[in-house]
Design goal:
CATH architecture: 2-Layer Sandwich
Number of helices: 2
Structural class: alpha+beta
Number of domains: 1
Strand content: 35-45%
Amino acid sequence: MSRRRIHVIVTGRVQGVFFRKTTVQEAERLGLSGWVKNRSDGKVEIEAEGTDEALDAFLAFCRRGPEHARVDELAVAHHPARGDVGFRVEDGN
């Protein structure tokens, strides 16, 4: 089964609404590796690696976010997998 990596920038009301915490939970549930962090411009940045099916499900989550989030825009770039292990919260910029 092939793996790939995505880089995602989420715009909207996405900080202070448990976006990072629920992103980690969803990524772990789907068996993804990578990271999530808050950016200084109010956006959330994510890199996630996994199968096409898992990444598609993950992007569906990112489009809606947790209960109190409001996602206005999702920018996605696709990259080759790097073989990362685990999913974590990183310090923001």
